[in-house]
Each structure stands twice: as C-alpha cells, then as structure tokens.
Specification:
This protein has about 650 residues and is α/β, with parallel strands linked by helices. It contains 18 helices and 14 strands. It starts with a helix and ends with a strand. Bound molecules: S-adenosylmethionine. InterPro entries: Ankyrin_rpt, Ankyrin_rpt-contain_sf, RMT2/GAMT_Mtase, RMT2_dom, SAM-dependent_MTases_sf.
Length: about 650
C-alpha cells in the first residue's frame, strides 16, 4: 500500500514535470519541481520524458539542466524516438549535440566506473542476455538456415521463437565490397603476399572479396558455429590454397596467443554475431599486436546502434575514441545503403540497420609512427612502441577530457560534467573521397557540375601542396638561418674590426660588437627570406589559380542561368603549410541558412531523420495516445548497446544491460 502511494506520487510529479516543460514554464519553476523529487526517468503514456518535451521546445538551457540532473539520454518513446531524434527532426543542432554528447559521456563514464571500481560491489541493473542473441555459447548451439529469400537475396538466418533474425544478409554485400576496396587502396600491398585475418564467416561475402581482390598468401578465418563450418566445407573453403580455418571463437585463439603465432597480418576484419560492445572493445585491444606494421589495415562491421541515428552517432564516436586509446587512427567514409534496396530486403526478419549510410572505418597504427620511423631505425623499435603507447594514451586522455571535465562521480552514478566537442567540417582532401553535394546546395548547383568541379579543385590543391618537400624545405631554411649567420659572424666581425682588437672579452669602445651582430641579424633575415619567399610565391600562385578557376565558373554560371538567378559564390582556400586540407566555401541565398542537421542533410551523413516518418517533419507534435499507467522502464544512464540483430533492441523487451560495478 505504502509502495503504491510512493509510485503514485512519483507518477504525479513526473507528469507535472513534463506538463511544466510543455507549458514552457520558467527554468526556476522547473528546477523546483525537480527538487521536489520529480523523476527524470518518468515517461508518459506516449513514452515521452521531460527531455523529449524539452527537445520539442528547442530549449537548450532546459535540455542542459535536465541532462545535468540525470535525464536519460537514450530513453525512447512509443514510436522509438529518443529526445535526440526529436531535436534532429526539428533541425536543432544545439539540442541534438547536447543529447548526443551526454550519450558519449555516459558511455565513457560507465566504462570508467566499471574499470576503476572493479573491487567494489556489483550492482546489477538488469540480467545479462543469455539468449542466442546475447550469448555466443547459446548462439553456437542454435540452428542456422542458409537460404535465398523472396527478393533473391542470400541470407543466413537464426530461427527463434521470436521470429527470424538475419545473422548475415546479402544486402550487406556493398559494404563488404567497399571495405575490401578500401583495404586494397590503403594497404600499399598491391597484390602478392598479403596476409589476411577475418573473424566471422557468415555468408563468406567478405572472404570471397578478400580472395578475389587481394589474392592473399595467407587467409586465416575464425569461425565457431558448426552450421557455418559445414557450409564452408560444402563450398570448398577448407581446400582453398592459403586458407586456414580456426574452428572456435576468436577469444579462444587470442587467449592462447595462437593467432599471434602466424605473425602479423596486413588486413584484419571482424564481424561477429551475438557479441556486444565490450567484446568488440576487447578485440580492439588486440589489434595493434596483430597488425603487421604501418601499412597494415583494420576494419570492423560498424553496426553499433544502427537502428537509430543518435545511437549510431554515439557509438561511431565511441569506437573511434576506444581505437585511439590502443593507438589506432581511424578514417571514416560513407557507404550509401539505400540505393536499389527497399524495405522488402528485410522480408519477415528483423530490421537491424535503419540508416541510409554506413560509416566505414579503416584503422591503422597511428600516423606518428610514420614520422618516428624516419628518424628511428627499426632496431630501436621498442622506443617507438613506447612513444606510440604514450602518444595514444595522451590522445585518449585528451579526447576523454574533451568530453568529460571536472568529473564528480556521485553514488547514483551521475556525474557533474562539462562538455566540449569541435564541430565537424567537410574538408576537401586527397585522402578522402569527394564530399557529396550538400543538401543546401541542391537546386543551386547541379550534381554534374559538382562532380566535375570538386575533383578539379582537389587536383589543383594537390599540385600546390607537397608536404614532404615543404617539410624538408622548411627544415633546410631553419638550419641555414642558424648555420649561415653563425659561420659568417667571425668574418663580418674581423672585417668591421678596423683596429684589430680581436674578439676578446675586454670591452673596447672601438670594437664593432653591435655592428657585427646587427649585420648577422641582417644575414639571418636575408637567408630566411631566401627560403620563405619562393615558397610563399608558389603558394600564392596556387591560390590565384584557384581564384581564377572559381571566377571562371561563376562567369559560366551567370551566362547559363542569367542575371536574375541566384549564383552561388565559390571561394577556395588552398592548403597552407601546416594544414594539408583545402577548404571550399559556396554561398547560399541570403534567405537560406546553412544547416548540417536538415533531416535529409548530407553533413554528417550518418545523421539522418528518425525512422518514424511523423518525426521527419519540422514540427513534432505531442501525441495524445491511449491512456494507461506509464512504466519507468530504464533504471539509470545505462549502456545502450546490444547487438542490433537482437529483437526489440533499444527499449523493447529484448533490450539488455551489462553488469556494471559502482
Ligand atoms: C555477420 S556474420 C559475418 C558475415 C561476414 N562478414 C560475411 O561477409 O558474410 C557473423 C559470423 O560471426 C560468427 N561469430 C559469432 N561469434 C563469434 C566469435 N566469438 N568468434 C568468431 N566468430 C564468431 C558467426 O558464427 C557468424 O558466422
């Protein structure tokens, strides 16, 4: 009875809080309701929390306050939308970022808590998933079905009482193909002698591309599932030259250092099933030992949180940070997974990837090693390894401190934090594929024009940017500007020392100390100019060529569109000495604001409107659904990630939490 009263009181306060937010009550009033004990986790009958309502109001200060007071960043409403999705649908970048960053922070904090308090008592937030979706052992003892679905798509299905789930589906072919292409263009090992490790065979799509594209001399495949191993046998994988199949989980071979006995690999890929983010993170920790060297590359199936733009964004950032922590730099590119494929591809199976773009990661040992290798011979590799460790640790700490400042972890696992993260920019770089036509420019710049102009600018930029040459030239300038004045000083001094007093320490009025030093400074300036002027002139020529090119395009545009139409102004900043990226500014009509968060905007491309079409509108109305008692279904800012292929992911019955120690 007492319990019922307590719950009823919480429900009343929770509802009061949401109503106050929706009624746009002033922040001090809302703070009072929170201080009176209103639960921030409370969700009304539509699944809306106070944070959803604050995002709907586009009230940045309130979003900040609620998050600071412990609002749950990843609570989803009955339509599957988080508060971040609502901010996104309203094109509100500031609110979206606040919520997204709270997610990153919360995940990092959970990891800190679980690593730093290992000796403390364990609090179980929820039981860990022991079904075939969340436990590899349960998965291995379940049956798999290899078949072709109604769309003619090859699929490997796990059949359960809750319906079929695709362990691997043919539509992912494009992702696998692009990954292997990236491996090929990045590894520098054009063909022979490549050593490859792939974890998880599935349909063998990636393995087939690896064979065809890289023709590896050694191709190790780790696979534990008996049905998959049987399928591999029927396809003849056991007899392929250079192929070695390790039957079991990757954990068994890593623990026994068995994979290490093969020596380093040039290419490593992992894509497993029924594992969660912690398993992937553990695998990340082994990657630096497994990579053969600086030319070797690593990638993984980046499906974390892919049922929702916000969660995907959070986990993409997290995995980049975790990889940086072990000394791996990641470059991301986008693979369009919408073209030519519709909703039918899922058939009766669970939709585990709901976004239009896949963010493809390519990792390598951190770039600083390249530079160190230039100075330190291979024999002194231990030194570089130590420096690498220090650098990556420093990088991770600095990145982490960007997200978490003044961490004050209290007993309820809530932390008082400040957040900072730089705004992403789209650079034109030789290393990156050309950016897609930004949504804001559609209607002002034609796709063909864009496709022709961007490579032309990138090419021009690369002609006027030679980092190695510039580095050596500036090094020579530095040495010469010190060495030449130092070498000339005695000669200048003696030439000016008409009385021949010599350069002794007894001061004579007639000694030309000051004149000689002034002349040496003059020599220093002269030598510096000798090196800097040609470099500056070269850069200026590059810039003026870029200016001339964009001017010509503007004239072309004017001719074709006529004087009454809006003509975007193109401005190109060529690469400077220190920054290898060029930057292009294209103007919009004065009435149109640039946005990276238009529901269909390109930047950043993995962000897109929520899956729910109603939320894709600029206005997200409060929905009045049927009545009923709300269920507080989330007990703390717990980690969101489980395998997306698991049923009812994110907020549904199938959602699972890991144990954390607090
Ligand atoms: C999504 S599929 C891989 C698909 C593959 N990339 C392709 O291109 O077809 C996942 C595979 O990982 C395997 N797997 C699951 N847990 C594993 C583990 N701990 N170690 C190695 N493989 C695992 C599964 O049996 C399954 O064959």
């Amino acid at each position: 009875m007492e319990k019922d009263n307590e719950v009823n009181e919480l429900v009343v306060l929770g509802r009061l809080l949401i109503d106050a937010v929706l009624a746009r009550k002033p922040i001090p009033d809302i703070r009072t309701i929170i201080d009176d004990g209103a639960p921030l986790w409370f969700q009304d009958e539509d699944g809306w929390s106070a944070l959803h309502a604050a995002a709907n109001n586009e009230d940045e200060d309130l979003v900040k306050l609620l998050l600071a007071e412990g609002a749950i960043w990843n609570a989803v409403d009955n339509l599957g939308n988080s508060a971040g999705d609502i901010a996104l649908s309203l094109n509100n970048e500031a609110c979206y970022r606040l919520i997204r960053d709270a997610g990153i922070r919360s995940e990092l904090l959970l990891q800190l808590l679980s690593s730093k308090n290992a000796a403390a008592e364990t609090m179980l937030l929820h039981a860990t998933d022991t079904s075939a979706f969340g436990s590899t052992d349960a998965f291995i003892s379940s049956n798999l079905k290899y078949t072709t679905d109604e769309q003619g798509q090859e699929v490997c299905l796990l059949t359960t009482d809750e319906g079929d789930v695709g362990v691997m589906m043919g539509w992912e072919r494009g992702i696998m193909q692009e990954t292997v292409q990236k491996f090929k263009s990045n590894t520098g090992t054009e063909s022979t002698g490549t050593r490859v490790l792939n974890v998880g065979f599935g349909l063998g799509i990636v393995d087939t591309f690896l064979q065809e594209t890289l023709q590896p001399s050694l191709h190790v495949i780790i696979e534990p599932h008996p049905d998959v191993l049987h399928y591999m046998r029927t396809l003849g994988w056991y007899d392929k030259p250079g192929v070695q199949i390790l039957e079991g989980k990757w954990q068994s071979f890593i623990d026994k250092d068995e994979i290490l006995s093969f020596g380093g690999f040039d290419v490593i890929y992992t894509d497993t099933f029924s594992e969660n983010y912690d398993d992937l993170r553990e695998f990340f920790g082994h990657v630096p030992d497994l990579l053969a060297g600086l030319d070797a590359r690593f990638s993984f199936f980046n499906g974390l949180g892919a049922t929702n733009a916000l969660f995907y964004d959070v986990y993409t950032h997290l995995s980049e940070l975790q990889l940086a922590d072990v000394g791996i730099d990641v470059e991301w590119s986008d693979v369009d997974v919408t073209t030519g494929r519709d909703e039918k591809r899922w058939g009766e199976t669970r939709k585990y990837f709901a976004l239009p773009y896949y963010r493809l990661p390519i990792g390598r040992l951190c770039e600083i090693l390249d530079w160190l290798e230039f100075f330190i011979p291979r024999s002194a590799r231990t030194v570089t390894t130590w420096l690498l460790f220090l650098r990556s640790h420093f990088y991770f700490s600095s990145q982490q401190s960007k997200y978490i400042r003044n961490v004050d972890v209290r007993s309820d696992a809530h932390a008082d934090v400040q957040f900072y993260h730089p705004r992403p920019r789209q650079y034109l770089s030789r290393k990156e594929p050309p950016p897609l036509l930004p949504i804001e420019l559609q209607g002002h710049v034609g796709p063909e024009t864009w496709a022709m102009r961007i490579p032309a600018l990138t090419m021009l930029a690369s002609r006027f940017h030679k980092p190695i040459f510039e580095g050596l030239w500036l090094l020579a300038a530095f040495i010469a500007s010190i060495a030449v004045p130092a070498a000339l000083y005695p000669t200048i001094f003696h030439a000016l020392d008409k009385n021949g007093n010599g350069n002794n320490f007894r001061f004579h009025d007639d000694q030309p100390f000051f004149q000689a030093r002034a002349a040496t400074v003059g020599v220093f300036i002269g030598v510096s100019l000798l090196f800097w002027v040609p470099l500056l002139v070269w850069k200026m020529i590059g810039q003026s060529r870029a200016n001339a090119l964009v001017k010509r395009w503007s004239e072309d545009d004017l001719r074709t569109k006529g004087p009454s139409a809006f003509i975007p102004v193109w401005k190109m900043n060529m690469p400077s000495f220190w920054n290898s990226s060029a930057r292009l500014n294209v103007s919009l009509p004065p009435s149109q604001l640039p946005t990276t968060f238009h529901p269909a905007a390109y930047l950043p491309s993995w962000i897109n409107g929520p899956v729910d079409p109603a939320a894709g509108m600029y206005y997200y109305p409060v929905q009045n659904g049927p009545g009923g008692q709300p269920q507080p279904n989330i007990a703390g800012n717990a980690g969101a990630y489980g395998d997306e292929k698991a049923p009812a992911y994110m907020g549904g019955e199938g959602r699972h939490y890991d144990d954390i120690k607090v």
